[in-house]
Amino acid sequence: MSQDWRPGISEKTLRLRAALLARTREFFAARSLLEVETPLIGANTVTDPHLDSLVTRLAGQSTDFFLQTSPEYHMKRLLAAGSGDIYQVCKVFRNGEAGRRHNPEFTMIEWYRLSMEYLELAREVCELLAALLDQPDHAEPELLEYAEALERFAGLNADDLSDGALLAALNAHDIAAPERTHGAALQDLVFSTLVAPRLGKNKATVIYRYPAAQAALARLCRDDPGKAERFEVFFDGMELANGFQELTDAVEQKKRFSNDNEKRQREKLPTIATDQRLIAALADGMPECAGVALGFDRVVMLAAGADNIAEVMSFDVTRA
């Protein structure tokens, strides 16, 4: 008789996961963040060309709805309505993401701080990780600018990130780039293969001041508009969190959505309608804040010493 009905997680890890969730809520309660819930199904979705949303059709509706890749847009509408500091633990969905560290459905912790700048929030992320991973309080995270990390681990000068220089760095490590990979995609490949695996050894590493081309929903640096107030947190070579000094300018946000759709057209991807409710919320006045999303399942992987995300989920996509 087939045994594939069984969960992929052990009882020990199941209990560890529950304990880490409880510890997470204790962490935020001690800091007076309000826990919120927002829709998993929405009328709009992200325009980011690197993300592929799962689509569904609701009975009686003539247009598609989407399983959310992040609670971000809805949470920002709450912020604009005056919610104050908020957090959420929820399921999110990303089509085509499956592998040792990816599952199309996973658990995200997302939170927003009105009283913090983005690097202050990065430190709070590291404090949460220390609490969840039983790290010593004195283990200060390493902070590295994006350009500095490229120079240290890939031998690249930030003044020359041409395709030729990026390909040379990959070739030096016998890594072949997929055909027609260039520009930002090639730079991301260099970072993910040569830099990221070497970050976060024994303590968290925060990479910050990303290129403006990778700003996503982050505000650009006031002292250098070629860079963005964005950070990512790595531990043991694994990306755990992605955060921003949030963009609050409705006009700039609408422009970025349009730019994303232009990229989608060039890459022959479907265009995504602009989320007009988010634009309206920003125009009405979303407060200045920093926000971050943390992949909870990956944190459980680290705490459990697991090599595959399926080991820390009750039922990953292969068992669903």
Task: Give an overview in words.
The chain is an alpha+beta fold. The chain has one domain: Bira Bifunctional Protein, Domain 2 (BirA Bifunctional Protein, domain 2, 2-Layer Sandwich), CATH 3.30.930.10. Helices cover 35% and strands 21% of the residues. It has 9 helices and 12 strands. The strands form 2 sheets. Strands 1, 5, 6, 7, 8, 9, 10, 11 and 12 form a 9-stranded mixed sheet that branches. The chain has a 3-stranded antiparallel sheet with strand order 2-4-3, with no helix packed on it. Helix 5 runs parallel beside helix 6 and helix 7 packs antiparallel against helix 8. It is globular and about 50 Å long.
Work out the count of structural domains: 1
Estimated radius of gyration: 20 Å
What string, H for helix and E for strand, traces the elements in order? HEEEEHEEHEHHHEEEEHHEH
Output the CATH class name: Alpha Beta
Strand content: 15-25%
Helix percent band: 25-40%
Tell me the span between the first and last alpha carbons: 18 Å
| Mean pLDDT metric | 94
Number of helices: 9
Could you please say which CATH topology applies here? Answer: BirA Bifunctional Protein, domain 2
The SS-based structural class is alpha+beta
